[in-house]
Automatic annotation (TrEMBL):
Keywords: Phosphoprotein
Organism: Candidatus Nitrobium versatile
Boundaries of every Response regulatory domain copy: 5-119
Protein name in the entry: Response regulator
Sequence positions bearing 4-aspartylphosphate: 54
InterPro entries, sorted: Bact_response_regulator, CheY-like_superfamily, Sig_transdc_resp-reg_receiver
SMART domains: REC
């Protein structure tokens, strides 16, 4: 079975490093980006079955990135993560096409569980 590639987008380097470490330990191949634009550039180069995006980022926020991804790659699974958890954020994320939502801070086990749950629903 091929290694699953995950793309993590967050403007905070420590979050990217933490996610990479947790996901690699679980056997995933991980690429990271610091912005929505960088994410879109990476998606042009290669395909990922799942993308993890921070909600609050400068310039292009997580919802804008999510909407752009879903227009270009409708089958791509996107998980929104945020430390600003409100019902409105969750609803907006899910209504915009997110497959799941994860609240920061999260444990490595919770991150791996969310990625697994989303991958199980992939066609």
């Amino acid at each position: 079975m091929a290694t699953v590639r995950v793309l993590v987008i967050d403007d905070e380097e420590i979050v990217r490093i933490s996610c990479r470490k947790a996901l690699r330990s679980a056997g995933y191949e991980v690429d990271t980006a610091a912005s929505g634009k960088e994410c879109l550039d990476l998606l042009e180069e290669g395909m990922y079955p799942v993308v993890l995006i921070d909600l609050k980022m400068p310039a292009m926020d997580g919802i804008e990135t999510l909407v752009t991804i879903k227009k270009r790659y409708p089958d791509l699974q996107v998980i929104i993560m945020s430390g600003y958890d409100t019902v409105e954020h969750v609803v907006e994320s899910l209504c915009s096409g997110a497959a799941h939502y994860i609240e920061k801070p999260f444990t490595p086990d919770m991150l791996v569980k969310r990625i697994s749950e989303v991958l199980e629903t992939c066609p």
